[in-house]
């Protein structure tokens, strides 16, 4: 089985697999190698990754980003307080002193810990890997900053557990960079080490490490970091900071963590329930789209492929039926269940095919006779 690695950043995430003697950064559903680290809670389902980023502008208070800045940190942390001033979504202090992110989801106010949100993000990345490998993914390696505390590292492991993953190793991001640089080098010295500096400037932090290379060897000599200096700070020099009005939303549901095993199990169950809800909504959307596609396809065929074989009266009846279904889709049928859309499609097919069946049989008969004659 291929080894899967997850690199989650403040703004984007990357999934990579080791196969065919190389490291392959896999594509997501949008054929991109980077997936936005965004979770947007809609009225009926979650939108994660690219879909979440696309919903940010229309639903900013329920679009959660920069989870990396929240994970494993106390609400009173001065650096976190500085970050919160720029977040459009609601963050409040939980009873354990850690942040809770409050959103509107499924018609109610719900609160999530950063660990739960990261678990949702890992679940999405896991799905990308499984779709690419066409196999289940459990074991993985996750990149983390060198400055992460023990509590933050444990939060990463808990988040992976929520997503159904088993992290074999947490590797420093700078160490991973050094490995990527040296793994294919064939002309490394055998005696005196070659020292190389790696500078990683992310969205909100900066890391530097010095690595020593010998043939077949890698040693990290030192590393340094600044948790609060990143690309965003350079952007703020060029443009005035935009202030976003924030509203405190009362906390209804508190699921917080360290995370005890009982709470972790509850988080796993909640993630499963929300993933199931997402799947139901996607399947319902697919069935609705199938009805709409059938209406358009049949209408086009009546004006094109079937035109010379259908009388005007027959065509008018079928067009009227198709129009009725289309009107229903955008009015009473705008928000129906999956079973209703399935039944509507079957009803439409039955009505259409019953009128076209005899016509097609006659047409096929004459075509076969013509072929025999020729």
What is the element string, with H for helices and E for strands?
Answer: EEEEEEHEHEEEHEHEHEEEHHHH
Q: Any idea what the CATH architecture of the largest domain is?
A: 2-Layer Sandwich
User: How would the global form be characterised?
Assistant: elongated
Sheet of most strands: 6 strands, mixed
The CATH topology assignment of the largest domain is Nucleotidyltransferase, domain 5
Structural class comes to alpha+beta
Rg measurement, Å: 28 Å
- Strand-residue proportion: 15-25%
Assembly category: single chain
Distance between the termini: 58 Å
Given this structure, which CATH class of the largest domain is correct? Alpha Beta
GO cellular component, one term: cytosol
Keywords: ATP-binding, Nucleotide-binding
InterPro entries: ATPase_NBD, HSP70_C_sf, Hsp_70_fam
GO molecular function: ATP binding; ATP-dependent protein folding chaperone
Please summarize what this structure is.
The chain is α+β, with helices and mostly antiparallel strands and 374 residues long. The protein has helices spanning 50-54, 78-84, 114-133, 150-162, 173-182, 231-238, 261-303, 312-329, 338-373, and strands at residues 3-8, 12-19, 22-25, 35-36, 39-41, 46-48, 63-64, 90-93, 99-105, 108-112, 139-144, 166-172, 194-201, 206-214, 217-226.
